[in-house]
Amino acid sequence: MLAPESPTDLAQALGDAAAHGRTIALGGNSSKRLMAGPSEPADVVISTTALHRVLEYEPHDLTISVEAGLAWRSLTSLLAANRQMVPLDPPFAESATVGGVIACNCSGPRRRLYGTARDLIIGMRFATLEGKLVQSGGMVVKNVAGLDMAKLMIGSFGTLAAVAVVNFKLVPAPEAEQSFLLPFRSLGEAMAARNQVLASPLQPVAIDLLNPAAARSFGGDRWLLAVRAAGNAASVQRYERELAHITSRLAVENACPETLWSDLESFTPRFLRENADGAVVRVSCTLKDLEGVMAAFEVTAVARAGSGVCYGYFERNEAAASWVSGAVARGFKTVIEFSPQECKHSLELWPAPGGDFEIMRRVKNLFDPSNLLNRGRLYRRI
After folding, report:
1. Domains of the chain, first to last
2. Each residue of 228-244: pLDDT tens digit?
3. What is Dmax (Cα atoms) for the chain?
4. Percent of the chain having pLDDT more than 90?
5. What is the helix (H) or strand (E) element at residue 75, kind and residue range?
6. For 37, which DSSP code?
7. What is the pTM of this model?
8. What is the rounded CA–CA span in Å between residue 356 and residue 353?
9. How confident is the model at residue 250, as a pLDDT?
10. Which of 32, 38, 171, 170 is nearest to 103 (CA)?
């Protein structure tokens, strides 16, 4: 295994392997090896874990530049010391690297307010199979003109090039936070409350919806709507009044577990540890269609209810495959996001990639015409 210690060395390693026609497996800590497509055997294995420097940090400018192999927890700890953050909340955060989070386009509950990696990255350096380092963007929030090639790397699972350096715009930590866990007897009641929250002056950081099966992890047995408020003290206090009016009940933080959001961020890793044969299905939908998607799950399910992303947790991967087949027939945009490594070749991980898939294939051909890099990692389609 090669572990380049600088972006230049990373580019050289990729260029040397490609020049000899060798297939390449690229990764960091491999914390998300169960995600997307299989990790195919390769002639050369390249790890970014030795690229772990903080290159530039300007707390007053709210920007930071780090290498891709930096541990995600090291990044968040450094920023927390200055009450700043990159609010992506990725699963597997305890072992993930920055490059892995970006390559897999991971996000969590706070996606509702802060968006995804595409909204927080202002620059990137990546290494190509030609042995070159490409700079996209920089350290200024509005400095990208024309095609922002960094956007192509986000969510590409390392199938195009190797992320070497990532520049983030930072977000100040809020003065105060408060969380509310609201139980409902039915999905319809929970959705009605969500709709009222979204239509109100409130702008929650996160709104997650748990079906009764998921609620059991938090000691409940009903539909649960988890709302995370943040801002100054006065605005956070307003949430309690407004939510009490919307839901006709008093929502108090004492009823909300202190570990609620960290538990929701790690819901998927915990499920996979406990279910070796399990699979996680992700459905992307509109806010209007979210109720129908959640109703279709007869298994444990959690939704980013303010973003339109739903997750179904199947204890058997065959059941996930069967559900996805029916979901595609209903027009759902779905993938089997996590599955056992040994089952990935037999599962249809991404059954309906959509009309823009041909463009994705063309981009792959531009970066990697010989199909050497992370073959099949993009849900076995690329």
Report:
1. 7-172+361-367 (3.30.465.10), 176-265 (3.30.70.3450), 267-351 (3.30.70)
2. 999 999 988 888 888 87
3. 68
4. 85
5. helix 72-80
6. S
7. 0.94
8. 8
9. 42
10. 32
